[in-house]
Write a structure and sequence with these properties.
Oligomer: single chain
Order of helices and strands: HHHHHHHEHHHHEHHHHH
Number of strands: 2
Distance between the termini: 38 Å
Shape: globular
Number of helices: 16
Largest sheet: 2 strands, antiparallel
CATH architecture: Orthogonal Bundle
Number of domains: 1
């Protein structure tokens, strides 16, 4: 009887209506934003701006792939460039040396990356904290050394140049607008996949082990299997991005696609944008990528030193003033503004007013 009365309580009905209203508002806002983003490349016709948009989409997707492991599951990895480079080299080698379509090479590279992630994960995922991160750094160092010394396959430190053979089969497009939408489509795929996983049992298990692994195990969650699944999925998505990058840039080299700076870049985009949110990695990429391109073009003699200094400065600012990232901070401020506009006080901290951020 008590439970029936609680369900009929007007306060509970108000909460349900509020949740539904927030969901509808979230769907409408998402649809509008997606439509605006899709139209932007038509407005900005210059090749430079379209290249910036393409890179934002690619790095946003790669940060989103890292976020599945580092943001949702709470395993801080600095080795995702190993899977990025695996995807890039697999599709490129199969295309250049065997004439195999990069679309097929992309799937093969994804399979190899998943196998590598499972192998590495079985060995290292039982480690906690900085020890797992150190192991992933060692892993990408080994991958880079291997790519440099296997000159017969990878071209060594000189890299590999992809021949210009335009065609859908070869994943080489003459129009830069096509590449914008290919990479944008992949970014949206990673984003909506993250949103979908957030409300699935697997996503809940990841969040549980991130918050308290011992408590999650006490509740009966197989935390090792959950960590391994997040590692494998993150590797698969990152590998696809590596193949797309190779065909987009038409050139790859070990020092970049297997570089520690690239792995750090994936993590920092997510940390700045907001870990554990689907939108955070995209926001981080949208903020940092144009700034990095501007600094590299303005100070070419300093090269990567400027970008690393910028990463460090932004990270310090976020940790000090916006510890939850841009998305969570913006969401919190918008909720307060919306509540004030309705003439009602925002819910006190610690009381849910319709769920967490679904960005």
């Amino acid at each position: 009887m008590k439970s029936e009365q609680s369900l009929l309580n007007p306060n509970h009905r108000d909460d349900i209506f509020r949740i539904r209203a927030e969901r509808r508002r979230s769907i409408i806002v998402t649809a509008v934003v997606v439509a605006v983003v899709i139209l932007i490349p038509f407005v900005l016709e210059h090749r430079f701006y379209r290249n910036v948009i393409s890179l934002i989409c690619l790095w946003g997707a790669m940060a989103g792939a890292w976020n599945i492991l580092g943001g949702y599951a709470g395993k801080f990895s600095l080795g995702n460039a190993a899977f990025f480079g695996t995807g890039a080299y697999t599709s490129t080698i199969m295309f250049v040396k065997g004439g195999v379509s990069p679309w097929i090479g992309m799937l093969v590279g994804m399979g190899i990356s998943v196998a590598l992630a499972l192998f590495l994960g079985i060995i290292t995922l039982r480690l906690k904290g900085k020890f797992f991160a150190l192991c992933t750094i060692a892993f990408i160092a080994l991958m880079e050394i291997g790519a440099v010394h296997l000159r017969g396959f990878t071209g060594g430190s000189e890299g590999m140049l992809i021949p210009w053979k335009p065609g859908i089969k070869n994943m080489i497009f003459e129009s830069d607008l096509v590449w914008v939408y290919v990479l944008m489509g992949y970014m949206f795929f990673v984003y909506f996949l993250s949103r979908w996983l957030e409300v699935r049992p697997l996503g809940y298990r990841w969040v549980a082990l991130r918050e308290n692994e011992d408590a999650a195990e006490a509740l009966g969650i197989n935390t090792f299997a959950a960590k391994l699944s997040s590692f494998a999925l993150s590797a698969a998505l990152t590998s696809i991005g590596g193949s797309l990058y190779a065909q987009y840039s038409m050139f790859i080299e070990p020092i970049y696609v297997f570089g520690l700076e690239l792995s750090t870049q994936f993590a920092l985009y997510t940390i700045i944008g907001g870990m554990g949110t689907a939108l955070g990695p995209i926001m981080g990429a949208a903020l940092i990528t144009p700034l990095e391109i501007f600094l590299r073009s303005s100070f070419p003699e300093l090269a990567s030193g400027v970008s690393m200094a910028m990463y460090a400065l932004l990270l310090i600012i976020v940790v000090l003033f916006i510890p939850n990232g841009l998305v969570m901070e913006a969401g919190s401020r918008l909720k307060k503004l919306f509540a004030r506009s309705l003439g009602s006080a925002p819910a006190p901290s610690g009381q849910a007013s319709g769920g967490g951020c679904k960005c």
